[in-house]
Specification:
By secondary structure, the protein is α/β, with parallel strands linked by helices. The chain has 9 helices and 15 strands.
Length: 291
């Protein structure tokens, strides 16, 4: 298939791009700069120059495609309006395609809010972090759009041996400084390795029924204290000191979205396993960084 990928140079999108190319699909990737275009070419994609914040300038250049994967993210304070404007410009173009393309929308685990000991599924009610409340409306807009054959994925906290959501932990260990943990060491995060998540995107693209929603979670939940210990083992370092940072302080430093790091939640990826045959390689604490 020919796929248009938004966010192909980002952490999630770069892994998705690699998996799509491995599977033999043709990928066109949005590139804001020539540097991004070079990275897309090196990964096997054809770049289409354009800025996510100015979609009217490039949407008409999208060729006929079989699918669109929206894995781009903008963590600015105006990320909601930015994405809404993107959909406003993009949906009419997709509606003019010879046939409705598959559209995979990327949501997120933080839309489910704190779950405590309960394990959230795709049927669980949303209780979104206020900074991401707009995402629910946009996701439903895409799922209900007649001009596309849509599906959605809610990734858990995404990591790899190179970092991802663990990047700040790894940087602190390399620098020999205390690790900042937002909220508490006992906060529980659902997890998914970036390569396992990329495999899920491929399976949703190729196999999912229109209107389907899947949680991309390989490990239902792991306490941050256990995650820090696992990262330390992976890096071959002694466990460093942990410095607790309040959610308010994190929001001041990074933006309101950073309150998500203090949300304690569990998320099931069982539906994707049952319906799509998804088999995450990194499915428990012991295989967190396994090859």
């Amino acid at each position: 298939m020919r796929i248009f990928l938004l966010g192909g140079t980002g952490f999630i999108g770069s892994h998705v791009l690699r998996r799509l190319v491995e599977a033999g699909h043709e990928v066109i990737g949005l590139a804001r700069s020539e540097t991004s275009a070079d990275r897309l070419r090196a990964a096997g994609a054809v770049p289409l120059r354009g800025d996510l914040r100015a979609p009217a300038q490039w949407v008409a250049e999208i060729p006929a495609v079989d699918g669109v994967i929206h894995a781009a993210s903008d963590f600015g304070d105006d990320m909601g309006p930015v994405e809404t404007a993107l959909l406003d410009a993009l949906q009419p173009v997709l509606g003019a395609m010879p046939k409705p393309p598959r559209f995979i929308y990327t949501g997120g685990c933080w839309l489910f809010g704190a779950t405590g000991e309960r394990v959230a599924t795709e049927d669980s009610p949303f209780a979104p972090l206020p900074a991401f409340g707009w995402m629910i409306d946009n996701m439903r807009r895409v799922l209900d759009a007649p001009e596309v054959s849509a599906a959605a994925i809610h990734p858990a906290m995404v990591y790899s041996a190179a970092g991802g959501v663990f990047s700040s932990f790894m940087e602190a260990m390399r620098d020999g400084v205390p690790i900042d943990v937002i909220g508490s060491e006992q906060v529980v995060w659902p997890l998914v390795h970036a390569e396992d998540l990329a495999e899920l995107y491929l399976r949703v693209l190729e196999k999912a029924q229109p209107g389907s929603v899947y949680n991309g979670s390989a490990i239902d939940g792991l306490a941050v204290a256990e995650i820090v210990a696992a990262v330390a083992r992976q890096m071959g370092t002694e466990r460093p000191d942990i410095r607790i940072v309040s959610a308010d302080r994190a929001a001041e430093r990074l933006g309101e979205w950073a309150r998500g790091y203090a949300i304690s939640q569990r998320l099931s990826g069982g539906k994707a396993r049952r319906e799509l045959g998804w088999k995450p390689v990194h499915g428990d604490a012991a295989t967190l960084f396994s090859e």
